[in-house]
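Record Transposase, 232 aa.
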Amino acid sequence: MARLPRVHLAGVPEHIIQRGNNRQVCFATDDDFAAYAHWLKEYSEAFGVQIHAWVMMTNHAHILCTASDNSGISLMMQSIGRQYVRYFNRAYQRSGTLWEGRFKSCLVQQAHYVMAVYRYIELNPVRAGMVESPFEYPWSSYAINAQGVQSALCQPHACYLALADTAAERQQAYRDLFKIEVSAAMLADIRSTIKSGMALGNDRFKQEIEALTGRRQHKEQPGRPKSKQKQN
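=>
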């Protein structure tokens, strides 16, 4: 079956995940993390993509970003993928594929959902039991968004800027968000949409994306369609 093209829309936030093939390790040392971060910065700038939040785990990476045109994210991820595979294979004297096929992605509604994805991404190391606080994990955007650590890679989304009027107040408001757990329902929505590639948001947002792209954004109901009743 032919693969469906991804849905990318300029100006609409997008959640991306790139996994190692068969969940194999793709970041083993600090040099590996730094190399991926370097190319993420280089190619996000080259293709007009703003990076809002990110985390690099041992076998996958999450990114929340917004592109200035419909092709920017695909071009960015393809370029990072090729460069990093060459680096990784050379560093570990291996050959062949590294990534689990194509990266996965979904569009994200700004109101309510964008900040949930920020938290979902930066809490990955905590959910994995690697650290107790997201601040303890060095390879994510949490220190930038919550503590004001300077970075040329991360650019705030409008929803983040709307948290407060000053940088210090925004950072405090952002830290306060992490005192409340992401709900089980939201976690399930985030995971299912990144897996399916369908939009993360309410019904109205999904309908708008369907109208703009011609791609279905609602899951089909399980079971066979009902057969028509025979006329008497």
